[in-house]
Predict the structure of Methyltransferase domain-containing protein.
Amino acid sequence: MFLFIRSLLKSPLAVGALVPSSPQLSRLIASQVCCGNSHVLEVGAGTGSITEALLNLGLPANRLFVIERDPSLVAHLYKRFPNIQVRCGDAEHAAAILCEEGISEVQTLISSLPISNLNGDNRIAILEGMMNALAVDGQLIQFTYTANCPFPAKRLGLHAERVGRVWMNIPPAVVWKFTRASYAL
Ligand SMILES: C[S@@+](CC[C@H](N)C(=O)[O-])C[C@H]1O[C@@H](n2cnc3c(N)ncnc32)[C@H](O)[C@@H]1O
Protein backbone atom coordinates (compact mmCIF):
# COMPACT_ATOMS: atom_id res chain seq x y z
CA MET A 1 0.00 0.00 0.00
CA PHE A 2 2.84 2.39 0.88
CA LEU A 3 4.44 1.80 -2.52
CA PHE A 4 1.13 2.33 -4.28
CA ILE A 5 0.55 5.66 -2.55
CA ARG A 6 4.13 6.77 -3.25
CA SER A 7 3.60 5.93 -6.91
CA LEU A 8 0.25 7.72 -6.91
CA LEU A 9 1.81 10.87 -5.45
CA LYS A 10 4.62 10.72 -8.03
CA SER A 11 2.33 10.29 -11.07
CA PRO A 12 -1.36 10.54 -10.16
CA LEU A 13 -2.63 10.32 -13.74
CA ALA A 14 -0.51 7.28 -14.61
CA VAL A 15 -1.63 5.38 -11.52
CA GLY A 16 -5.22 6.57 -11.75
CA ALA A 17 -6.58 4.90 -8.61
CA LEU A 18 -6.59 5.73 -4.92
CA VAL A 19 -5.90 2.19 -3.77
CA PRO A 20 -4.94 -1.15 -5.37
CA SER A 21 -7.66 -3.21 -7.09
CA SER A 22 -9.88 -5.03 -4.59
CA PRO A 23 -9.89 -8.85 -4.26
CA GLN A 24 -13.45 -8.84 -5.71
CA LEU A 25 -12.42 -6.90 -8.81
CA SER A 26 -9.23 -8.96 -9.17
CA ARG A 27 -11.16 -12.24 -8.97
CA LEU A 28 -13.76 -11.20 -11.55
CA ILE A 29 -11.00 -10.21 -13.97
CA ALA A 30 -8.97 -13.37 -13.33
CA SER A 31 -12.05 -15.53 -13.90
CA GLN A 32 -12.28 -14.24 -17.49
CA VAL A 33 -8.98 -15.77 -18.50
CA CYS A 34 -9.05 -18.53 -21.05
CA CYS A 35 -5.62 -19.16 -22.40
CA GLY A 36 -5.16 -22.80 -23.35
CA ASN A 37 -1.42 -23.13 -23.38
CA SER A 38 -0.82 -19.53 -24.33
CA HIS A 39 0.70 -16.84 -22.11
CA VAL A 40 -1.39 -14.26 -20.28
CA LEU A 41 -0.07 -10.70 -20.32
CA GLU A 42 -0.94 -8.27 -17.55
CA VAL A 43 -0.08 -4.61 -18.10
CA GLY A 44 -0.01 -1.95 -15.37
CA ALA A 45 0.09 -4.63 -12.68
CA GLY A 46 0.86 -2.08 -9.93
CA THR A 47 1.11 -3.85 -6.59
CA GLY A 48 -0.03 -7.20 -8.05
CA SER A 49 -3.61 -7.66 -6.79
CA ILE A 50 -4.79 -9.09 -10.11
CA THR A 51 -1.53 -11.01 -10.55
CA GLU A 52 -2.22 -12.75 -7.25
CA ALA A 53 -5.82 -13.57 -8.26
CA LEU A 54 -4.60 -15.06 -11.55
CA LEU A 55 -2.16 -17.35 -9.74
CA ASN A 56 -4.77 -18.25 -7.11
CA LEU A 57 -7.18 -19.28 -9.85
CA GLY A 58 -4.60 -21.73 -11.15
CA LEU A 59 -2.74 -19.93 -13.92
CA PRO A 60 0.75 -21.47 -13.97
CA ALA A 61 3.37 -18.86 -13.03
CA ASN A 62 5.44 -19.65 -16.11
CA ARG A 63 2.56 -18.61 -18.35
CA LEU A 64 2.10 -15.17 -16.79
CA PHE A 65 4.02 -12.17 -18.14
CA VAL A 66 3.77 -8.73 -16.56
CA ILE A 67 4.64 -5.27 -17.89
CA GLU A 68 4.66 -2.31 -15.47
CA ARG A 69 6.05 1.15 -16.15
CA ASP A 70 6.95 2.30 -12.63
CA PRO A 71 10.39 0.88 -11.66
CA SER A 72 9.63 0.82 -7.93
CA LEU A 73 6.47 -1.23 -8.55
CA VAL A 74 8.46 -3.50 -10.87
CA ALA A 75 10.95 -4.15 -8.05
CA HIS A 76 8.04 -4.92 -5.74
CA LEU A 77 6.48 -7.33 -8.27
CA TYR A 78 9.83 -9.14 -8.74
CA LYS A 79 10.02 -9.69 -5.02
CA ARG A 80 6.38 -10.63 -4.51
CA PHE A 81 6.18 -13.03 -7.47
CA PRO A 82 9.67 -14.46 -8.03
CA ASN A 83 8.38 -17.10 -10.47
CA ILE A 84 6.70 -14.87 -13.03
CA GLN A 85 8.31 -12.79 -15.76
CA VAL A 86 8.12 -9.07 -14.98
CA ARG A 87 9.44 -6.35 -17.28
CA CYS A 88 9.69 -2.61 -16.78
CA GLY A 89 8.18 -0.98 -19.86
CA ASP A 90 5.29 0.72 -21.57
CA ALA A 91 2.16 -1.21 -22.52
CA GLU A 92 2.21 0.61 -25.84
CA HIS A 93 5.27 -1.49 -26.76
CA ALA A 94 3.86 -4.75 -25.40
CA ALA A 95 4.35 -6.71 -28.64
CA ALA A 96 8.03 -5.73 -28.94
CA ILE A 97 8.71 -6.49 -25.25
CA LEU A 98 7.10 -9.94 -25.58
CA CYS A 99 9.00 -10.58 -28.80
CA GLU A 100 12.33 -9.93 -27.01
CA GLU A 101 11.35 -12.74 -24.63
CA GLY A 102 10.45 -15.11 -27.47
CA ILE A 103 6.67 -14.79 -27.02
CA SER A 104 4.91 -13.98 -30.29
CA GLU A 105 1.41 -13.30 -28.93
CA VAL A 106 -0.91 -13.89 -26.00
CA GLN A 107 -4.49 -15.13 -25.83
CA THR A 108 -5.53 -12.87 -22.95
CA LEU A 109 -4.24 -9.41 -22.08
CA ILE A 110 -5.36 -7.84 -18.82
CA SER A 111 -5.02 -4.11 -18.50
CA SER A 112 -5.17 -2.09 -15.28
CA LEU A 113 -4.08 1.03 -17.18
CA PRO A 114 -6.00 4.18 -16.20
CA ILE A 115 -7.24 4.43 -19.75
CA SER A 116 -9.90 7.06 -19.01
CA ASN A 117 -7.17 9.49 -17.93
CA LEU A 118 -5.61 9.46 -21.40
CA ASN A 119 -6.62 11.79 -24.20
CA GLY A 120 -8.16 10.29 -27.35
CA ASP A 121 -4.95 9.86 -29.39
CA ASN A 122 -2.92 8.36 -26.53
CA ARG A 123 -5.78 6.05 -25.65
CA ILE A 124 -5.98 4.69 -29.19
CA ALA A 125 -2.17 4.37 -29.42
CA ILE A 126 -2.07 2.29 -26.22
CA LEU A 127 -5.03 0.21 -27.37
CA GLU A 128 -3.30 -0.50 -30.70
CA GLY A 129 -0.10 -1.40 -28.85
CA MET A 130 -2.02 -3.87 -26.69
CA MET A 131 -3.97 -5.36 -29.62
CA ASN A 132 -0.68 -5.94 -31.47
CA ALA A 133 0.34 -8.32 -28.66
CA LEU A 134 -2.91 -10.32 -28.90
CA ALA A 135 -3.60 -13.40 -30.98
CA VAL A 136 -6.24 -12.75 -33.68
CA ASP A 137 -8.83 -14.52 -31.57
CA GLY A 138 -7.47 -13.12 -28.30
CA GLN A 139 -9.26 -11.02 -25.70
CA LEU A 140 -8.39 -7.79 -23.94
CA ILE A 141 -9.82 -7.34 -20.43
CA GLN A 142 -9.91 -3.73 -19.23
CA PHE A 143 -11.57 -2.20 -16.20
CA THR A 144 -12.72 1.39 -15.87
CA TYR A 145 -14.21 3.58 -13.18
CA THR A 146 -16.79 5.08 -15.52
CA ALA A 147 -19.87 3.36 -16.90
CA ASN A 148 -19.07 4.17 -20.54
CA CYS A 149 -17.14 1.90 -22.87
CA PRO A 150 -13.57 3.28 -22.83
CA PHE A 151 -12.93 2.74 -26.57
CA PRO A 152 -14.98 3.51 -29.70
CA ALA A 153 -15.14 -0.25 -30.22
CA LYS A 154 -17.30 -0.42 -33.36
CA ARG A 155 -15.21 2.15 -35.21
CA LEU A 156 -12.06 0.21 -34.33
CA GLY A 157 -13.48 -3.13 -35.45
CA LEU A 158 -13.80 -4.47 -31.92
CA HIS A 159 -16.59 -6.28 -30.17
CA ALA A 160 -17.13 -4.90 -26.64
CA GLU A 161 -18.76 -6.91 -23.88
CA ARG A 162 -19.54 -5.47 -20.46
CA VAL A 163 -18.58 -8.30 -18.10
CA GLY A 164 -19.95 -6.70 -14.96
CA ARG A 165 -19.69 -4.02 -12.30
CA VAL A 166 -17.84 -4.51 -9.04
CA TRP A 167 -19.18 -2.33 -6.24
CA MET A 168 -16.63 -3.61 -3.73
CA ASN A 169 -13.77 -1.58 -5.15
CA ILE A 170 -12.63 1.99 -4.57
CA PRO A 171 -14.07 3.44 -6.67
CA PRO A 172 -16.56 0.86 -8.03
CA ALA A 173 -15.34 -0.50 -11.36
CA VAL A 174 -16.75 -1.89 -14.60
CA VAL A 175 -14.98 -4.76 -16.33
CA TRP A 176 -14.93 -4.87 -20.15
CA LYS A 177 -13.88 -7.57 -22.58
CA PHE A 178 -12.78 -6.68 -26.12
CA THR A 179 -12.28 -9.07 -29.03
CA ARG A 180 -11.76 -8.42 -32.72
CA ALA A 181 -15.27 -8.14 -34.18
CA SER A 182 -14.47 -10.65 -36.92
CA TYR A 183 -13.69 -13.27 -34.23
CA ALA A 184 -16.41 -12.40 -31.70
CA LEU A 185 -18.72 -15.27 -30.81
C1 LIG B 1 -4.69 1.43 -11.38
S1 LIG B 1 -2.97 1.19 -11.13
C2 LIG B 1 -2.72 -0.53 -10.89
C3 LIG B 1 -3.78 -1.32 -10.23
C4 LIG B 1 -3.33 -2.73 -9.92
N1 LIG B 1 -4.33 -3.68 -10.40
C5 LIG B 1 -3.12 -2.89 -8.42
O1 LIG B 1 -3.96 -3.49 -7.77
O2 LIG B 1 -2.13 -2.39 -7.91
C6 LIG B 1 -2.35 1.42 -12.79
C7 LIG B 1 -0.92 0.98 -13.02
O3 LIG B 1 -0.62 1.15 -14.41
C8 LIG B 1 0.73 1.56 -14.52
N2 LIG B 1 0.86 2.20 -15.86
C9 LIG B 1 0.31 3.38 -16.26
N3 LIG B 1 0.56 3.59 -17.56
C10 LIG B 1 1.28 2.52 -18.00
C11 LIG B 1 1.82 2.15 -19.26
N4 LIG B 1 1.67 2.94 -20.35
N5 LIG B 1 2.49 0.97 -19.37
C12 LIG B 1 2.64 0.16 -18.28
N6 LIG B 1 2.15 0.47 -17.06
C13 LIG B 1 1.48 1.63 -16.91
C14 LIG B 1 0.95 2.48 -13.35
O4 LIG B 1 2.31 2.60 -13.02
C15 LIG B 1 0.12 1.76 -12.26
O5 LIG B 1 0.92 0.86 -11.55
Observations:
- The chain has one domain: 2-183.
- The mean pLDDT is 93.
- Residues 4, 7, 14-17, 20-21, 43-44, 46-47, 49-50, 67-70, 73, 90-92, 112-114 surround S-adenosylmethionine (CB under 6 Å).
